[in-house]
Every structure is written in structure tokens, then in C-alpha cells.
Amino acid sequence: MTDRLDAMRAAVGPEDYGAAAAAAETQALFARLWHFVGFDDELTAPDGYLVRTIAGVPVVVQRFDDDIRAFRDVCSHRHARLHTAERGHGPLRCPYHGWTYSREGVPVGIPGNDPCFQLDKADKAALALTGYEVARRGRFIFVRLIPGGPDLDIWLGPLGAWLDAVSDGFAAPFDQAPLDWRADWKVGMENVLEVYHVDSVHPETFRTVTEGVWKCAEHGAHSTGTIGLTAETRRWWEGVAKRLKLTPLTAFTDYDHAIIFPNLAIGLTAGLMASVQTYEPVYAPDGTVRPGRCHLRYRLSLARQQPGASAAARQGVEGHLADFNRRLLAEDQSVAEAAWAGSQQADRPALLGHNEGRIRAFHAAWLKEMGR
Description:
CATH architecture of the largest domain: Alpha-Beta Complex
Strand order of the largest sheet: 1-9-8-4-3-2-5
CATH class of the largest domain: Alpha Beta
Mean pLDDT: 96
Radius of gyration: 22 Å
Helix content: 25-40%
Structural class: alpha+beta
Shape: globular
């Protein structure tokens, strides 16, 4: 019995959810791997921007005409943050003293430069913002802080097709928000990798819309899972598609789920709704990680709409789906926080059944990328 239990133990132990592991992940995972930051339609304005914290570093992703660049979001003059909102539009300009930066990150507009600083071209180039790699797959924008490693398309492998499908088939998000969870980000990811908890945690939400067997596949560091939809759920979505004139993604007819390592999760329902989530560590202003904290950032989108649909009907459906999703996430948050708190008192790794194989694959990817 002991040998059988040992074989079922997770490769990641309780200590891997604590402070030391969280600090090591900052450079080993989040600075070194591609990190999803948002959609390019969030940067539609000529000077649209997004601000994210990656591996403890504040990063601004800024559009310059048809080009998208990423820089450390800290002014070279007196170190103020260049953008104070998470997203918006406006030039890459410091709100403190008005220093304005070019697409190369060089301060090209310095109020009072001649009388106060006398900075020449070489001086300005030396004050350029720290830049980071940016890559796109469809509408998905990724940033990598430490250069090197595989190109984005190579890293995504066959999961790149998922991003293409979501990019082509879904409209801009109708609901999105960051949620503060008191749990390690890995606990959040593990929760979406299995449906074993659905009967206990989601009896009136997720359980009411799905049925059948959770069919899973591994794709390098990434994985996918599919479960069927109930007949009633299919009829409801067929009615929504007809009423709102939505064009479904015919390749995705069930609840289809994918993760892109380390922390991007995508769920597609009947090929008509996409839920895009990231589970992000939380950092202090000095860049140190806060163990046992993560931000779940979610985005909900419906399939693209043909002309002539009722705006009021769409608004009603979106409101219903947003409420349903918030209930579901509140249920997940409660158990994820309980699981993380318990892990801090555990003295041995968790037990994983055959129905939790995607978690085992996620742990294997984590150990590999951590160099262990």
C-alpha cells in the first residue's frame, strides 16, 4: 500500500508553494518565459498602452503606429512610473516632468533641456528605457524579459492554433477584471486542470452545463482537456447563437480547455464563448514576490457577430454570462485559498489520481523549467 501511495504522490511538494520557491520562480519562470499581457485590440488607439508587472518588473506595452514595444515603466529622470493606469491611450510620457520617449525608448522630448541639462544625442541614447521582447500570435501579445530561448511560435507549438482560433473567432472582451486571491498561482492553475472538484465545488454552476469524461492531451509544456456539454446547455447556446447572430467556431463544440505554460488558461464553450485567464504572482513595489498571493486576471468574449443583431439582447446575455462566471470564480477562489493554506501545513506531497493527469504534466513542466 505504501509503495502505491508513493507512486501517486505529486512531484511538487508543499515547500514548492512557499516563499523560497516563489522567489526562485521570479527569474526561472516569469522573467525567462513568454508572458501573455493582453490583446492587441486593447491597443487600438495610435498610442494605446497596457501596464503589467512581470517577474516584479513594471512593464509598459505601448503602441507606436503599427509597432508595439515593451519597456520598463520607469522614467530615466526621477524614476516616476510613466503610466499610472493599467491601460489607456497617450504618448509614452512621464506625468511628473513631461519627459517623452520614442519607440526606441529614448527621451526625445525633454522640457527645458537646453538651459537645465544640455543633453546631446549620445546622452539621450544612454538614458533609453530598458526594452523587452514582444511577440504576437493572432491578437495575443506576449512579453519576455530575458532575451533568448525559443521564438513564441516554437514555444506555443500546436497550441498556437488555439490562439489563432480565438483571435479570428471572438470579439473584444465584454467583461474583464483582476481578482486578488490568497493562494499561490500554481494552486489556481492546478484547479483549472481537473474537473474532479466540480461535483463538490460547482454543483449549481459548472456541473449544470457539462457531462461526460474529461479527455486530456499533453503538448510539451502545455496541455488540453475536453468535456461534453449537456443537451440543455447545447440548446441554450444554439438559441443564443441564433438570437445574437453569432458565428461559432465549428472546431470547438464542447467545453474545450487549454493551458499555455506557465500561467495562461483558455476555456471555450460551444465555440461561442471564450474565457481567457492568467494567474499572476503578486509583487511588492521593490519587486519582491508576495508568497501566497496571486491575481487572477480574466477576460470573457463572445463569438463574432453578424450584422443586424439586437444590442439589448446581446447586453442581456453578456450580463447573465458575466454573473455566472463571477459565481464560478468565487467558488474556485474559496477552495483554492483553502488548498494553499493547507499546503503550508502539509508534510508530504499531494496525492494525484488518474483523473488529475494534467496536474502531473504541469508539475513536470514546472520542474523542468525550474532546472530541477
